[in-house]
Design goal:
Elements lengths: L10 H4 L2 E2 L5 E5 L2 E6 L2 E6 L4 E6 L2 E6 L10 H25 L2 E8 L4 E5 L2 E5 L6 E4 L4 E4 L5 E6 L2 H14 L9 E4 L13
Antiparallel strand pairs: 1-6, 2-3, 3-4, 5-6, 7-12, 7-13, 8-9, 9-10, 11-12
C-alpha cells in the first residue's frame, strides 16, 4: 500500500513554483508548455515525477512506477529527480516572465565587439575579425565596444551562447586578456624570471 506521497521530496522539490500573472501554463501528458511576455517554452517531464497545477502554483512530487514502496537507494534518486524537475520548471517560468541575461567583457588592446542583427563581429587580436552567428531565441547587445550582453528566455541557451563567445578567446593567465564573464575573477600567474 504505497502512494506517491510516501516518498519524501528534496527541500527544493517541496517548494511550489509560483506562476506570476501574465504567464499561461498548460500540462499535456508529460509535456509542460509555458507562455509569457518574453516567449514560449516547453519541457518534457521525467516519468518519475508527478506535476499538479493548482490556481497559480505548480507542485512537483515523486511518483512510484511500481506497486511496491520505494525504499533504500532509489528514494534518493526519486527525490533528486523531483528537485531537478522543479528547478527546470522554475527556470522556464522565470525565462518567459523576466528573461535571463549574461554579461561578457572584452579585455585587451584593440579588442572590440559589434552586433549586426543576427551576427556578432568580434575583433580579438586575430588577423581577421571573427563572426559569431546568433542562434534563434537569443538576442545579443553591445552597449559599448568592450561589453557583450546575451539575453533570452531559455537559461540553458543563454549560458551556452555566452560560453561559446567566451571560448573564441578565453582569458589568458598572464595578463588576463581575452573574453571573460563580468563576475569572473582571473588568477594571474607570475611571468618567468631569468
Amino acid at each position: 500500500m504505497s502512494t506517491s506521497t510516501s516518498i519524501p521530496t528534496s527541500r527544493i522539490g517541496r517548494k511550489p513554483v509560483t506562476v506570476p500573472s501574465g504567464v499561461e501554463v498548460k500540462l499535456h501528458d508529460q509535456k509542460l508548455s509555458v507562455k509569457g511576455p518574453k516567449g514560449n517554452l516547453s519541457i518534457t517531464l521525467h516519468p518519475f515525477v508527478q506535476v499538479t497545477i493548482d490556481k497559480n502554483e505548480i507542485q512537483v512530487s515523486p511518483k512510484s512506477t511500481s506497486k511496491r514502496a520505494i525504499t533504500g537507494s532509489s528514494t534518493k534518486l526519486y527525490r533528486s529527480i523531483a528537485g531537478t524537475v522543479r528547478a527546470n520548471i522554475n527556470n522556464v517560468i522565470l525565462g518567459v516572465s523576466q528573461g535571463f541575461e549574461r554579461k561578457l567583457l572584452l579585455v585587451g588592446v584593440g579588442y572590440r565587439a559589434q552586433s549586426k542583427g543576427k551576427v556578432l563581429s568580434l575583433s580579438l587580436g586575430y588577423s581577421h575579425p571573427t563572426d559569431f552567428n546568433v542562434p534563434e531565441g537569443v538576442v545579443i547587445e553591445t552597449p559599448t565596444q568592450t561589453e557583450i550582453i546575451v539575453k533570452g528566455a531559455n537559461k540553458e541557451l543563454v549560458g551556452l551562447v555566452a560560453a561559446q563567445i567566451r571560448s573564441v578567446r578565453g582569458p589568458e593567465p598572464y595578463k588576463g586578456k581575452g573574453v571573460r564573464y563580468s563576475d569572473e575573477k582571473i588568477e594571474l600567474k607570475e611571468t618567468k624570471k631569468k
